[in-house]
Amino acid sequence: MDVQKTMEFILEQQAALTAHQQEQAGSIKALRDSTAELKAMVALHESDINVHREWLTELSAAMQRLTDQTQDGFVRAATKDRALRENLAGMAAGNAETRENLNILIRTVQDIIPRLPKQ
């Protein structure tokens, strides 16, 4: 076995290993950089998501208030409509009574007029 060739072989292998290690170190650095960029992007998107979540929460609350107000408005309108109908029904009954009284008065006057002395 030739010592010189063995030494050259070992040196070549060591050089190849060193080159490979440097290449791996570069890849690891690139992965770390990419990971840092991705973490920054995730943080940015999380911030956007939080803003949108707040908007959605506020919008949902506003829609709920609007729904409640609309429902209350319908209830008030129905109550006022019912009161108006009752009032109109009462007026109609009152008008019927007034007509009946007027008809009685007219008949009474018609009965009295023929009996009045002529002047």
Characterise the protein shown here.
- The protein is built from one helix and no strands.
- It starts with a helix and ends in a 7-residue tail after the last helix.
- It has one helix at 3-112.
- Helices cover 92% and strands 0% of the residues.
- It is rod-shaped and about 170 Å long.
- The chain is mostly helical and 119 residues long.
- The chain has a domain at 32-113.
Which key phrases capture this entry?
0% strand, mainly alpha, single chain, rod-shaped, 119 residues
Write the layout of secondary structure elements.
Elements: H1 3-112
A few lines on this structure:
The protein has 119 residues and is mainly alpha-helical. It is 92% helix and 0% strand.
Q: Main beta sheet: strand number and arrangement?
A: none
Our count of helices gives: 1
Order of helices and strands: H
- Oligomeric form: single chain
The proportion of strand residues reads under 5%
Stretches with pLDDT under 50, minimum 5 residues? none
Count all strands and give the number: 0
Q: What do the pLDDT scores average to?
A: 90
What shape does the CA trace take? rod-shaped
Q: How does the helix and strand content classify structurally? A: mainly alpha
Radius of gyration: 50 Å
Level of helix content?
A: over 70%
N→C terminal distance: 170 Å
